[in-house]
From TrEMBL, chain A:
It catalyses: 4 Fe(II)-[cytochrome c] + O2 + 8 H(+)(in) = 4 Fe(III)-[cytochrome c] + 2 H2O + 4 H(+)(out). The keyword Glycoprotein does not apply. InterPro entries: CcO_II-like_C, Copper_CuA, Cupredoxin, NosZ/Cyto_c_oxidase_sub2. One of its GO terms (cellular component) is cell envelope. Its main location: other. This is Cytochrome aa3 subunit 2. Transmembrane segments: none annotated. One of its GO terms (molecular function) is copper ion binding. Signal peptide: none annotated. Subunits I and II form the functional core of the enzyme complex. Electrons originating in cytochrome c are transferred via heme a and Cu(A) to the binuclear center formed by heme a3 and Cu(B). SUPFAM superfamilies: Cupredoxins. PROSITE patterns: COX2, COX2_CUA. Keywords: Copper, Metal-binding.
UniProtKB/TrEMBL annotation, chain B:
It is a multi-pass membrane protein. This is B(O/a)3-type cytochrome-c oxidase subunit 1. Pfam families: COX1. Residues 16-487 form the Cytochrome oxidase subunit I profile domain. Belongs to the heme-copper respiratory oxidase family. Its main location: membrane. One of its GO terms (biological process) is aerobic respiration. It is found in: Membrane. It comes from the Bacteria. Keywords: Electron transport, Heme, Iron, Membrane, Metal-binding, Respiratory chain, Transmembrane, Transmembrane helix, Transport. The chain crosses the membrane at residues 20-42, 54-78, 99-118, 138-160, 172-199, 219-243, 255-273, 293-315, 336-357, 377-397, 418-438, 458-487, 517-535. GO terms for molecular function: cytochrome-c oxidase activity; heme binding.
Amino acid sequence: MHMHKFEKIWLVFGIGSLLVFLNVVGVSAFYMGNQPPSCLTTIDPEKVDTTKPFNKPGLHKVEGKDWDYELVFVASAFSYNPAKVVVQKGVKVKIMATTKDVIHGFEVAGTNINMMLEPGYVSEYVTTFKKTGEFLILCNEYCGVGHHMMSSKIEVVEK
Amino acid sequence: MRSTTEKMKVDPRDAKLSMAHFYVAFIALALGGLAGLLQVLVRSGNFQLPAPITYYQVLTVHGVLLGLVLTTFFIIGFQFAAMSRTAGTLSNGARKSGWLGFWLMTIGTAMAAAMVLLNKASVLFTFYAPLQAHPIFYGGLTLVVVGSWIGGGAMLTSYVRWRKQNPGKVSPLLSFMVVVNMLLWLVATIGVAATVLLQMLPWSLGLVDTIDVLISRTLFWYFGHPLVYFWLLPAYMCWYVIIPRIIGGKIFSDSLARMSFILFLLFSIPVGFHHQLTEPGIDPAWKFLQVALTFLVVIPSLMTAFSLFGTFEMYGRQKGAKGLFGWLKMLPWGDARFTVPFIGMVTFIPAGAGGMVNASHQMNQVVHNTIWVTGHFHLTLATAVILTFFGISYWLIPHLTGRVLTKKMNKLALIQGCLWAIGMIFMSGAMHAAGLLGAPRRSSFSTYGGSAQATEWIPYQIAQAVGGTILFVAIILVLIIFINLAFFAPKGEQEFPVGEAAETAEKTPLIFENWKLWLGVTVVLILFAYTIPLIDMIQNAPPGQKGFKLW
């Protein structure tokens, strides 16, 4: 099939850029470990309150792991438990969250923490807060009439 | 003997079928547009809906009417006209199937709409489980899909008949494109049909207690991404085939146009995970694979951009244009049939760039479910696609009703296109900006208990209300033009423009019509991208979830 010379140049340049782009994304994902939250752990949505670690929502110091703290959240229409936490700047935190009822979002505004909470699944993300201040946690997946009221707070303080 | 060669005019019986679809589509535009206006006003913080109407009910109306009803009805109506014009008048059987499909879709829409208005189905147009709507809502959606299958089947039989009567010949380009789009639709809707029929209907009827949420979402997004290409391809038909004729030029290359459509068929389905990047329960390696497949649609998109601007430049230079960009001046800017879709075409450039951010493995986390995404699809669907659809209706409606587009209406249409562009710059621009700051999509006005971050978003929400109001004025203009062209414009002959390939172009190879090959590759790609992750989801499924009605 005939192609115009300019079209060949255009497509070679375009496909070349695309390959560079996909390589950057791929190296970031598989070599540097920047994968989107994709936890494979499941949970019985009826028994969230009695299943570890969700029986004790909040911030917990842990020893001998790659992270310093575990921050446990339980979501249900239309709130998060806990409603506010204080975290030190610069410490490594593993956020673990799940939902008791419908799908909710877990977005910390102004950060890259953004994950879906789905009944039956645990969502996890390891992060370090680098700036102090108050950050809004909000539900960004429609969950019902009180969806826009569903929020919590993370206050990041100096060590 | 019944002739099935190309006709200059759509047969009046086929025209009636197309027009039936357009009436429903434009009623949906009026009501859905009004719902959109109410939403931006509420979200500015300065307006409240009268009880008992809720924001999320209005949001469901907006999404269902504009995202599902307007698009599907317009596309089916347009494609029937395109088949009748290029592959010959529909057979009586095909036309009857067309009417059956139309009535099934209309009854289904009425069923779903009734449930939404009674507040029994405020689940938005994505209807994610375990929010549980009334069974009649799911039943209505099923009828819409089944109706579209019957309509699509009628189009396919028209194409098969043409092939039989013209053995060894290359099919008309527009008919070929319609066939690609309907095959894409048939393969894609299997996913949504599966989740609605096998999961949601039995669960909402109480036959089973629980539902597997992740499988349901996966089936939905198997359908949800090709859905956007089902919207886009009719706009591409206009850009590739119709616009060249309107400006008086030639189609850049028939073969390349067919190739880009085939590539869309292959690469638009095995990519649904890029809507599920932040979800638990899916291995990130499979997410990455689908991300890579998603980006392959960049190739046909680049080909399309080249062809379109190639056509424009060739035409301009033929008219004696000088210099690097002199040909731009030669284009018929005073013709709404060209200019309105052209605004859509240009919008597709930033829209595509934003889409690359959304589908990126990591960057997605910055914008997922923020109002950035809403801003994105108001550039793709609600500008690039819909302005092209409006541009099509400005000649197709009078063609079908035996009237003409007058100078006055043409001028009004140009104003409509410009107002749309201005309104969308405000609304979509503010949505993109607020989304980067973290403002969520699909949420009513909220200060989140006086949060400093949420306060920063409010000026952007006011800008959205300004843009949304301008867009609503543009919708009123569209409706005035539609009513004029359907009932009041002077009688006459309005051309159905269909472009021809440039004389220098080579003969189109027949390989493009080898459907066994293309459907085979499509199925292999889908099985490759989905089989193992789906088996994983089934084998490692958590206990199911019961239904909730939280609105």
